[in-house]
Amino acid sequence: RLDRETSGVMVFAKTAAAALELRRMWELGFVTKEYLALVHGEMRDAEGHIDLPLGPDETSAVAIKDCVRPDGASARTRWWLE
After folding, report:
1. In principle, which of 22, 25, 55, 59 could form an S-S bond with 72, CB 3.0–4.6 Å?
2. Residue 51: active-site member
3. Cβ(75)–Cβ(52) under 8 Å?
4. DSSP per-residue codes, 42-74
């Protein structure tokens, strides 16, 4: 899945067996996503992690937008400066 504001690569399975294997790999955590961001200003730390639950932002005018919320799904992000 690509968010509207995100560009990248999409993977499609050509067979049902391949789709099943791709789903299994995703569910077991073998698939990771990596993003590169440009940040304005200075970072306090050289690296860190964010472990907060994400779910739909029901107050946003943007159709598909997530926010941190207690009933959200587990979301972990590890970040570092390059």
Report:
1. 55
2. no
3. yes
4. --SSSEEEEE--EEE-TT-SSSS-EEE-TTSBP
Query: Which two structure tokens, joined as six digits, stand for 29?
Result: 């955590």
How far, CA to CA in Å, does 63 sit from each of 5, 19, 58, 72, 78? 12, 28, 9, 17, 26
Look at the block and give the residue holding tokens 């964010």: 50
Residues, the chain, total?
82
Q: From 49, 47, 55, select the one nearest 74 (Cα to Cα).
A: 55
Residue among 3, 51, 66, 71 flagged as catalytic:
3
pLDDT digits 0-9 by tens, 12-34: 899 999 999 999 998 998 988 78
Alpha-carbon separation of residue 51 from 57, 63, 79 (angstroms): 18, 24, 11
- Model confidence band, residue 51 (pLDDT cutoffs 50, 70, 90): very high
